[in-house]
Amino acid sequence: xxxxxxxxxxxxxxxxxxxxxxxxxxxxxxxxxxxxxxxxxxxxxxxxxxxxxxxxxxxxxxxxxxxxxxxxxxxxxxxxxxxxxxxxxxxxxxxxxxxxxxxxxxxxxxxxxxxxxxxxxxxxxxxxxxxxxxxxxxxxxxxxxxxxxxxxxxxxxxxxxxxxxxxxxxxxxxxxxxxxxxxxxxxxxxxxxxxxxxxxxxxxxxxxxxxxxxxxxxxxxxxxxxxxxxxxxxxxxxxxxxxxxxxxxxxxxxxxxxxxxxxxxxxxxxxxxxxxxxxxxxxxxxxxxxxxxxxxxxxxxxxxxxxxxxxxxxx
Length: 315
What we know:
By secondary structure, the chain is of the alpha/beta class. The protein has 13 helices and ten strands.
């Protein structure tokens, strides 16, 4: 199965050094390693990109200094060239770009103008008020790039041995399960689980309305059974179509973010695959997005998809 054709890897650097391994930040090294694996498995072309987060004035200073030995531009370009050579040693077609601007915006523009079907970035975990106000580059890339985004986190194994796929049971949920199953198949994953969260939005109102506990529990059980039957039907169809191993199905009660995090912990997931529905403005500030809420808590990589992403078709 060929899943991706063009993979974009965002890289960041610490400071000028002699080798790219010294320059790469820890999170960038994880993104590079994951990008190499994904390109290798799919036979995809790989593009490394570094975005100088510089103002117009700073950009002018950097460009005026040129790329002669000892300059920032020269060091970054040499580090990117070394990454291209690293890919080519593994027989992966690769190139490198250096851009200026806001990293997430520059990468989103690149994705919009060229045919990238996967973006890979690393992440630095941020919590508390700083996360609420500023987020992270990885989170912003996830929200702005119009293609699947994989946020790579450090793991003892490079291969995704245990994969969790989060679905809401919708038509888009089928697309998420499809992509997760193919991703797991390519990685030779041993354990794959599809999870679904049943949110009991109106339980409090039912109690206040005087509805008996037994009636509430019966209603909730019926809702879970209906969700399980629908998801099982989707899984059966995809397993038959793709010829892949059957995943385990878990339907649990709770908010989507809570269920995804708990199932990832229980499974020991190395990759979570889930959908992304964007919010903007004040609504996003207060309520966020399930993927944004899950990301800082996960100790594994995350792959997000949008409803507009192309459907992966098995050859």
